Amino acid sequence: MTQQAPYSFFITTSKGLEECLAEELKTLGAPATLSHFQGGISCEGTLEMAYRFCLWSRIANRVLLFLKAFDAYTPEALYAGIESIDWSDHMTEDSSFCVDFNLSSSQITHSHYAALKVKDAIVDQFRAKFGARPTVDTFHPDVRINVYLYHNEAHVSIDLAGESLHKRGYRDQSGGDAPLKENLAAGILQLTGFNADTPALVDPMCGSGTLGVEAGWIVQKRAPALNRKYFGFQGWQGHVPSLWRRLVEEANDILIRNPNHCPRIQCYDHNPKMVALATLNAKKAALEGIVHFSQQEFSDCTPIAEQGILVINPPYGERLGDEETLKDLYRLMGDRFKQQFPGWTAYVLAGNLELAKAIHLKPTRRFVLFNGPIECRLLKYEMYQGSGRKTS
Ligand SMILES: C[S@@+](CC[C@H](N)C(=O)[O-])C[C@H]1O[C@@H](n2cnc3c(N)ncnc32)[C@H](O)[C@@H]1O
Protein backbone atom coordinates (compact mmCIF):
# COMPACT_ATOMS: atom_id res chain seq x y z
CA MET A 1 0.00 0.00 0.00
CA THR A 2 1.07 3.56 -0.69
CA GLN A 3 -0.07 4.46 2.77
CA GLN A 4 -0.31 2.38 5.93
CA ALA A 5 -2.79 2.60 8.81
CA PRO A 6 -3.73 4.95 10.31
CA TYR A 7 -5.28 5.85 7.02
CA SER A 8 -6.47 9.33 6.12
CA PHE A 9 -10.05 9.69 4.99
CA PHE A 10 -12.18 12.46 3.59
CA ILE A 11 -15.88 11.88 4.13
CA THR A 12 -18.08 13.97 1.86
CA THR A 13 -21.59 15.25 2.44
CA SER A 14 -23.96 17.87 1.07
CA LYS A 15 -23.03 21.48 1.77
CA GLY A 16 -24.53 22.57 5.10
CA LEU A 17 -24.46 19.09 6.67
CA GLU A 18 -20.77 19.13 7.69
CA GLU A 19 -21.49 19.70 11.42
CA CYS A 20 -24.15 16.98 11.46
CA LEU A 21 -21.72 14.63 9.74
CA ALA A 22 -18.95 15.38 12.26
CA GLU A 23 -21.31 14.61 15.17
CA GLU A 24 -22.42 11.39 13.53
CA LEU A 25 -18.88 10.23 12.67
CA LYS A 26 -17.85 10.64 16.31
CA THR A 27 -20.63 8.23 17.32
CA LEU A 28 -19.19 5.80 14.74
CA GLY A 29 -15.69 5.84 16.17
CA ALA A 30 -14.05 8.87 14.54
CA PRO A 31 -11.47 10.72 16.65
CA ALA A 32 -12.74 13.59 18.83
CA THR A 33 -10.91 16.21 16.78
CA LEU A 34 -11.89 16.32 13.16
CA SER A 35 -10.90 18.71 10.38
CA HIS A 36 -13.91 20.47 8.89
CA PHE A 37 -14.04 21.58 5.26
CA GLN A 38 -16.86 22.75 3.04
CA GLY A 39 -18.52 19.58 1.79
CA GLY A 40 -16.82 17.16 4.13
CA ILE A 41 -14.73 16.11 7.10
CA SER A 42 -11.25 14.64 7.14
CA CYS A 43 -9.88 12.28 9.77
CA GLU A 44 -7.38 9.55 10.40
CA GLY A 45 -8.35 6.04 11.39
CA THR A 46 -8.46 2.38 10.57
CA LEU A 47 -10.06 0.50 7.73
CA GLU A 48 -12.63 -0.83 10.21
CA MET A 49 -13.65 2.74 10.96
CA ALA A 50 -14.05 3.51 7.24
CA TYR A 51 -16.18 0.38 6.79
CA ARG A 52 -18.34 1.52 9.70
CA PHE A 53 -18.81 4.90 8.02
CA CYS A 54 -19.85 3.18 4.76
CA LEU A 55 -22.31 0.93 6.57
CA TRP A 56 -23.73 3.27 9.21
CA SER A 57 -23.48 6.87 8.10
CA ARG A 58 -26.89 8.36 7.36
CA ILE A 59 -25.38 11.71 6.41
CA ALA A 60 -22.25 10.94 4.32
CA ASN A 61 -22.16 10.74 0.55
CA ARG A 62 -18.74 9.16 0.05
CA VAL A 63 -15.81 7.83 2.08
CA LEU A 64 -12.54 8.62 0.30
CA LEU A 65 -9.31 6.85 1.24
CA PHE A 66 -6.49 9.34 0.68
CA LEU A 67 -3.47 8.04 -1.27
CA LYS A 68 -1.28 10.96 -2.25
CA ALA A 69 -1.14 14.72 -2.88
CA PHE A 70 1.20 16.43 -5.35
CA ASP A 71 1.53 19.61 -7.41
CA ALA A 72 -0.08 19.38 -10.83
CA TYR A 73 0.24 22.66 -12.69
CA THR A 74 0.28 20.89 -16.06
CA PRO A 75 -1.21 17.70 -17.57
CA GLU A 76 2.34 16.27 -17.69
CA ALA A 77 2.83 16.86 -13.95
CA LEU A 78 -0.55 15.26 -13.30
CA TYR A 79 0.46 12.21 -15.35
CA ALA A 80 3.79 11.94 -13.51
CA GLY A 81 2.14 12.24 -10.09
CA ILE A 82 -0.38 9.50 -10.89
CA GLU A 83 2.39 7.30 -12.30
CA SER A 84 4.32 7.65 -9.01
CA ILE A 85 1.58 5.68 -7.21
CA ASP A 86 1.94 1.90 -7.39
CA TRP A 87 -1.54 1.03 -8.70
CA SER A 88 -0.96 -2.72 -8.37
CA ASP A 89 -1.49 -2.13 -4.63
CA HIS A 90 -5.09 -1.25 -5.46
CA MET A 91 -6.14 -3.24 -8.53
CA THR A 92 -4.98 -5.83 -11.03
CA GLU A 93 -4.77 -5.83 -14.81
CA ASP A 94 -8.11 -7.72 -14.74
CA SER A 95 -9.87 -5.04 -12.67
CA SER A 96 -12.21 -2.36 -13.93
CA PHE A 97 -11.82 1.22 -12.79
CA CYS A 98 -12.98 4.76 -13.43
CA VAL A 99 -11.81 8.25 -12.56
CA ASP A 100 -13.90 11.03 -11.01
CA PHE A 101 -12.10 14.34 -11.49
CA ASN A 102 -13.14 17.59 -9.82
CA LEU A 103 -11.16 20.79 -10.04
CA SER A 104 -11.27 24.43 -9.09
CA SER A 105 -8.91 27.45 -9.05
CA SER A 106 -6.24 25.59 -11.07
CA GLN A 107 -4.29 26.01 -14.30
CA ILE A 108 -5.73 22.76 -15.64
CA THR A 109 -9.32 23.69 -16.44
CA HIS A 110 -10.81 20.70 -18.32
CA SER A 111 -11.83 17.98 -15.90
CA HIS A 112 -12.68 15.50 -18.67
CA TYR A 113 -9.25 15.85 -20.29
CA ALA A 114 -7.56 15.64 -16.87
CA ALA A 115 -9.47 12.42 -16.08
CA LEU A 116 -8.21 10.95 -19.36
CA LYS A 117 -4.61 11.83 -18.39
CA VAL A 118 -5.10 10.02 -15.08
CA LYS A 119 -6.56 7.01 -16.84
CA ASP A 120 -3.66 6.95 -19.34
CA ALA A 121 -1.06 7.08 -16.56
CA ILE A 122 -2.67 4.09 -14.81
CA VAL A 123 -3.16 2.06 -17.98
CA ASP A 124 0.42 2.77 -19.16
CA GLN A 125 1.81 1.65 -15.79
CA PHE A 126 -0.04 -1.68 -16.00
CA ARG A 127 0.95 -2.25 -19.65
CA ALA A 128 4.62 -1.61 -18.87
CA LYS A 129 4.60 -3.92 -15.81
CA PHE A 130 2.20 -6.69 -16.80
CA GLY A 131 1.66 -6.39 -20.57
CA ALA A 132 -2.08 -6.04 -19.92
CA ARG A 133 -4.36 -3.25 -18.71
CA PRO A 134 -7.45 -2.82 -16.54
CA THR A 135 -10.67 -1.82 -18.30
CA VAL A 136 -12.82 1.25 -17.72
CA ASP A 137 -16.31 0.87 -16.23
CA THR A 138 -18.07 4.08 -15.26
CA PHE A 139 -21.10 2.35 -13.69
CA HIS A 140 -19.91 -0.12 -11.03
CA PRO A 141 -16.12 -0.32 -11.36
CA ASP A 142 -13.96 -2.48 -9.07
CA VAL A 143 -12.06 0.67 -8.14
CA ARG A 144 -13.33 4.24 -8.37
CA ILE A 145 -10.51 6.77 -8.23
CA ASN A 146 -11.24 10.28 -7.04
CA VAL A 147 -8.96 13.18 -7.94
CA TYR A 148 -9.56 16.64 -6.56
CA LEU A 149 -7.39 19.40 -8.02
CA TYR A 150 -7.49 22.57 -5.95
CA HIS A 151 -5.06 25.47 -6.35
CA ASN A 152 -2.95 23.18 -8.58
CA GLU A 153 -2.56 20.50 -5.89
CA ALA A 154 -3.96 17.09 -6.79
CA HIS A 155 -5.43 14.90 -4.03
CA VAL A 156 -5.79 11.30 -5.12
CA SER A 157 -8.12 8.91 -3.27
CA ILE A 158 -9.97 5.63 -3.62
CA ASP A 159 -13.74 6.03 -3.27
CA LEU A 160 -14.66 3.30 -0.77
CA ALA A 161 -18.41 3.97 -1.11
CA GLY A 162 -18.21 3.68 -4.90
CA GLU A 163 -21.63 5.24 -5.30
CA SER A 164 -23.16 7.96 -3.17
CA LEU A 165 -24.33 6.53 0.15
CA HIS A 166 -27.52 8.60 0.02
CA LYS A 167 -28.87 6.06 -2.48
CA ARG A 168 -30.39 3.68 0.04
CA GLY A 169 -32.33 1.62 -2.48
CA TYR A 170 -35.86 2.13 -1.07
CA ARG A 171 -36.69 4.92 -3.44
CA ASP A 172 -36.78 5.34 -7.19
CA GLN A 173 -34.52 8.39 -7.50
CA SER A 174 -36.86 10.03 -10.04
CA GLY A 175 -40.08 9.61 -8.00
CA GLY A 176 -41.94 12.32 -6.13
CA ASP A 177 -42.39 16.04 -6.28
CA ALA A 178 -38.95 17.50 -5.40
CA PRO A 179 -37.97 14.66 -3.04
CA LEU A 180 -35.31 15.30 -0.41
CA LYS A 181 -32.06 13.38 -0.72
CA GLU A 182 -32.04 10.67 1.91
CA ASN A 183 -28.94 12.05 3.66
CA LEU A 184 -30.46 15.54 3.84
CA ALA A 185 -33.61 14.06 5.38
CA ALA A 186 -31.44 12.18 7.91
CA GLY A 187 -29.50 15.39 8.67
CA ILE A 188 -32.75 17.30 9.26
CA LEU A 189 -33.93 14.58 11.66
CA GLN A 190 -30.62 14.76 13.53
CA LEU A 191 -31.05 18.53 13.89
CA THR A 192 -34.57 18.04 15.28
CA GLY A 193 -33.13 15.69 17.93
CA PHE A 194 -35.51 12.92 16.84
CA ASN A 195 -34.76 9.53 18.37
CA ALA A 196 -36.52 6.36 19.51
CA ASP A 197 -37.73 8.13 22.69
CA THR A 198 -39.48 10.98 20.84
CA PRO A 199 -43.21 10.59 21.54
CA ALA A 200 -44.35 11.28 17.97
CA LEU A 201 -43.15 12.57 14.62
CA VAL A 202 -45.52 14.04 12.03
CA ASP A 203 -44.66 15.01 8.45
CA PRO A 204 -47.85 16.65 7.10
CA MET A 205 -46.46 17.13 3.52
CA CYS A 206 -44.53 13.92 3.07
CA GLY A 207 -44.24 13.61 -0.73
CA SER A 208 -42.32 10.36 -1.36
CA GLY A 209 -41.96 9.84 2.41
CA THR A 210 -38.20 10.30 2.79
CA LEU A 211 -38.37 11.90 6.26
CA GLY A 212 -40.73 9.19 7.54
CA VAL A 213 -38.61 6.35 6.16
CA GLU A 214 -35.37 7.78 7.53
CA ALA A 215 -37.08 8.22 10.91
CA GLY A 216 -38.28 4.61 10.79
CA TRP A 217 -34.76 3.38 10.14
CA ILE A 218 -33.42 5.43 13.06
CA VAL A 219 -36.00 3.79 15.34
CA GLN A 220 -35.12 0.35 13.98
CA LYS A 221 -31.40 1.08 14.48
CA ARG A 222 -30.99 -0.07 10.90
CA ALA A 223 -27.59 0.51 9.30
CA PRO A 224 -28.66 2.44 6.19
CA ALA A 225 -26.35 0.47 3.87
CA LEU A 226 -27.18 -2.94 5.34
CA ASN A 227 -28.84 -4.22 2.16
CA ARG A 228 -26.70 -2.34 -0.32
CA LYS A 229 -25.20 -4.58 -2.97
CA TYR A 230 -22.33 -2.45 -4.27
CA PHE A 231 -19.49 -0.64 -2.50
CA GLY A 232 -16.30 0.78 -3.94
CA PHE A 233 -14.10 -1.33 -1.66
CA GLN A 234 -15.40 -4.72 -2.82
CA GLY A 235 -13.11 -4.91 -5.85
CA TRP A 236 -10.23 -3.02 -4.23
CA GLN A 237 -7.06 -5.03 -3.46
CA GLY A 238 -6.91 -3.71 0.12
CA HIS A 239 -10.40 -5.00 1.00
CA VAL A 240 -10.61 -7.30 4.03
CA PRO A 241 -13.81 -9.33 3.46
CA SER A 242 -13.76 -10.99 6.91
CA LEU A 243 -13.71 -7.58 8.63
CA TRP A 244 -16.61 -6.32 6.51
CA ARG A 245 -18.64 -9.50 7.14
CA ARG A 246 -18.16 -9.07 10.89
CA LEU A 247 -19.51 -5.51 10.76
CA VAL A 248 -22.51 -6.58 8.66
CA GLU A 249 -23.28 -9.40 11.13
CA GLU A 250 -23.02 -6.91 14.00
CA ALA A 251 -25.41 -4.52 12.18
CA ASN A 252 -27.88 -7.37 11.62
CA ASP A 253 -27.80 -8.14 15.35
CA ILE A 254 -28.40 -4.49 16.25
CA LEU A 255 -31.37 -4.12 13.86
CA ILE A 256 -34.75 -4.14 15.63
CA ARG A 257 -37.18 -5.18 12.88
CA ASN A 258 -40.31 -4.71 15.00
CA PRO A 259 -39.56 -2.42 17.93
CA ASN A 260 -41.91 -2.88 20.92
CA HIS A 261 -41.98 0.76 21.85
CA CYS A 262 -41.55 3.23 19.11
CA PRO A 263 -42.66 6.78 18.40
CA ARG A 264 -45.77 7.15 16.32
CA ILE A 265 -44.41 8.22 12.91
CA GLN A 266 -47.28 9.65 10.89
CA CYS A 267 -46.97 11.12 7.39
CA TYR A 268 -49.64 12.84 5.32
CA ASP A 269 -49.93 14.38 1.89
CA HIS A 270 -52.96 15.82 0.14
CA ASN A 271 -51.97 14.12 -3.12
CA PRO A 272 -53.11 10.46 -3.15
CA LYS A 273 -50.38 9.58 -5.69
CA MET A 274 -47.74 10.76 -3.22
CA VAL A 275 -49.33 8.74 -0.42
CA ALA A 276 -49.24 5.63 -2.64
CA LEU A 277 -45.60 6.28 -3.59
CA ALA A 278 -44.53 6.91 0.01
CA THR A 279 -46.33 3.76 1.17
CA LEU A 280 -44.51 1.75 -1.49
CA ASN A 281 -41.14 3.23 -0.49
CA ALA A 282 -41.77 2.41 3.17
CA LYS A 283 -42.66 -1.15 2.18
CA LYS A 284 -39.39 -1.44 0.24
CA ALA A 285 -37.64 -0.13 3.36
CA ALA A 286 -39.29 -2.90 5.45
CA LEU A 287 -41.16 -0.36 7.59
CA GLU A 288 -44.72 -1.61 7.32
CA GLY A 289 -46.50 -1.01 10.61
CA ILE A 290 -43.76 1.36 11.82
CA VAL A 291 -44.33 4.38 9.57
CA HIS A 292 -47.92 5.34 8.72
CA PHE A 293 -49.17 7.22 5.68
CA SER A 294 -52.54 8.68 4.81
CA GLN A 295 -54.11 11.28 2.60
CA GLN A 296 -54.90 14.53 4.38
CA GLU A 297 -55.03 18.27 3.70
CA PHE A 298 -52.69 20.22 5.93
CA SER A 299 -55.65 22.25 7.20
CA ASP A 300 -56.97 19.05 8.86
CA CYS A 301 -53.69 18.23 10.62
CA THR A 302 -54.17 17.72 14.38
CA PRO A 303 -51.77 16.45 17.07
CA ILE A 304 -51.54 12.68 17.58
CA ALA A 305 -49.84 12.99 20.99
CA GLU A 306 -49.41 15.60 23.71
CA GLN A 307 -45.89 16.34 22.54
CA GLY A 308 -43.87 15.60 19.46
CA ILE A 309 -42.03 16.90 16.45
CA LEU A 310 -43.60 18.28 13.30
CA VAL A 311 -41.19 18.30 10.38
CA ILE A 312 -42.27 19.91 7.12
CA ASN A 313 -40.69 20.23 3.69
CA PRO A 314 -43.36 22.41 2.05
CA PRO A 315 -43.40 23.41 -1.63
CA TYR A 316 -41.17 26.44 -2.35
CA GLY A 317 -43.08 27.92 -5.26
CA GLU A 318 -40.47 27.87 -7.99
CA ARG A 319 -42.95 28.67 -10.76
CA LEU A 320 -44.20 32.19 -11.40
CA GLY A 321 -47.52 32.85 -9.72
CA ASP A 322 -47.11 30.03 -7.18
CA GLU A 323 -45.91 32.36 -4.48
CA GLU A 324 -49.20 34.12 -3.73
CA THR A 325 -51.12 30.84 -3.45
CA LEU A 326 -48.42 29.34 -1.28
CA LYS A 327 -48.41 32.33 1.08
CA ASP A 328 -51.82 31.15 2.29
CA LEU A 329 -50.38 27.71 3.04
CA TYR A 330 -47.43 29.17 4.99
CA ARG A 331 -49.80 31.49 6.90
CA LEU A 332 -51.93 28.46 7.73
CA MET A 333 -48.86 26.63 9.02
CA GLY A 334 -48.15 29.37 11.55
CA ASP A 335 -51.81 29.52 12.62
CA ARG A 336 -52.09 25.76 13.05
CA PHE A 337 -48.79 25.44 14.92
CA LYS A 338 -49.89 27.91 17.58
CA GLN A 339 -53.56 26.93 17.78
CA GLN A 340 -53.34 23.14 17.52
CA PHE A 341 -49.87 22.08 18.59
CA PRO A 342 -49.02 23.38 22.07
CA GLY A 343 -46.19 21.31 23.53
CA TRP A 344 -44.87 20.41 20.06
CA THR A 345 -41.80 21.61 18.20
CA ALA A 346 -42.11 22.32 14.50
CA TYR A 347 -39.31 22.39 11.93
CA VAL A 348 -39.89 23.87 8.49
CA LEU A 349 -37.36 23.51 5.67
CA ALA A 350 -37.82 26.85 3.95
CA GLY A 351 -36.34 27.28 0.48
CA ASN A 352 -38.03 30.63 -0.01
CA LEU A 353 -37.50 33.07 2.84
CA GLU A 354 -40.22 35.46 1.61
CA LEU A 355 -42.75 32.65 1.92
CA ALA A 356 -41.36 31.66 5.32
CA LYS A 357 -42.15 35.17 6.62
CA ALA A 358 -45.83 34.36 6.08
CA ILE A 359 -45.58 31.76 8.91
CA HIS A 360 -45.53 34.81 11.18
CA LEU A 361 -43.93 33.09 14.16
CA LYS A 362 -40.48 33.78 15.52
CA PRO A 363 -38.14 30.83 14.97
CA THR A 364 -36.05 29.89 18.00
CA ARG A 365 -33.28 28.51 15.77
CA ARG A 366 -32.24 28.61 12.13
CA PHE A 367 -29.93 26.14 10.40
CA VAL A 368 -28.50 26.82 6.92
CA LEU A 369 -28.88 23.78 4.68
CA PHE A 370 -28.71 23.19 0.93
CA ASN A 371 -31.36 21.21 -0.87
CA GLY A 372 -29.35 20.58 -4.05
CA PRO A 373 -28.43 24.08 -5.24
CA ILE A 374 -31.18 25.79 -3.21
CA GLU A 375 -29.98 27.51 -0.04
CA CYS A 376 -32.57 26.78 2.64
CA ARG A 377 -33.21 27.49 6.29
CA LEU A 378 -34.43 24.84 8.66
CA LEU A 379 -36.57 26.94 10.99
CA LYS A 380 -37.42 25.74 14.48
CA TYR A 381 -40.63 26.85 16.22
CA GLU A 382 -41.33 25.87 19.81
CA MET A 383 -44.96 25.96 20.86
CA TYR A 384 -45.25 26.26 24.58
CA GLN A 385 -48.04 24.54 26.46
CA GLY A 386 -50.67 26.98 27.64
CA SER A 387 -48.84 30.20 26.83
CA GLY A 388 -49.10 29.78 23.06
CA ARG A 389 -45.81 30.56 21.36
CA LYS A 390 -43.29 33.25 20.64
CA THR A 391 -44.61 35.47 17.85
CA SER A 392 -42.87 38.09 15.78
C1 LIG B 1 -41.49 19.43 -1.51
S1 LIG B 1 -42.65 18.15 -1.49
C2 LIG B 1 -42.13 17.11 -0.14
C3 LIG B 1 -41.06 16.17 -0.58
C4 LIG B 1 -40.73 15.12 0.46
N1 LIG B 1 -40.04 15.68 1.61
C5 LIG B 1 -39.92 14.00 -0.16
O1 LIG B 1 -38.78 13.74 0.25
O2 LIG B 1 -40.41 13.40 -1.13
C6 LIG B 1 -44.06 18.93 -0.81
C7 LIG B 1 -45.27 18.02 -0.69
O3 LIG B 1 -46.30 18.77 -0.03
C8 LIG B 1 -47.54 18.33 -0.52
N2 LIG B 1 -48.51 19.39 -0.21
C9 LIG B 1 -48.57 20.64 -0.74
N3 LIG B 1 -49.61 21.32 -0.21
C10 LIG B 1 -50.20 20.51 0.70
C11 LIG B 1 -51.31 20.66 1.57
N4 LIG B 1 -52.04 21.78 1.60
N5 LIG B 1 -51.66 19.62 2.38
C12 LIG B 1 -50.94 18.48 2.34
N6 LIG B 1 -49.90 18.27 1.50
C13 LIG B 1 -49.51 19.28 0.70
C14 LIG B 1 -47.29 18.11 -2.00
O4 LIG B 1 -48.24 17.21 -2.54
C15 LIG B 1 -45.86 17.57 -2.03
O5 LIG B 1 -45.85 16.15 -2.08
List keywords for this structure.
single chain; 392 residues; alpha/beta; VC0802-like; Rossmann fold; 8-stranded mixed beta sheet; 10 helices; 16 strands; 25% strand; elongated; binds S-adenosylmethionine
Summarize this entry quickly:
By secondary structure, the chain is of the alpha/beta class.
CATH topology of the largest domain: Rossmann fold
Mean pLDDT: 94
Number of strands: 16
Which word captures the global form?
Answer: elongated
Termini separation = 59 Å
What does the model show?
The longest helix is centred in the N-terminal third of the chain and has 20 residues, at about 110-130. The protein is about 30% helix and about 25% strand. The protein is built from ten helices and 16 strands. With about 400 residues, it is α/β, with parallel strands linked by helices. The radius of gyration is 23 Å and the shape is elongated. The protein has two domains: about 5-160, VC0802-like, CATH 3.30.2130.30; about 180-220 and about 255-390, Vaccinia Virus protein VP39 (Rossmann fold, 3-Layer(aba) Sandwich). Helix 8 links the parallel strand 10 and strand 11. The structure holds S-adenosylmethionine. S-adenosylmethionine binds next to helix 6.
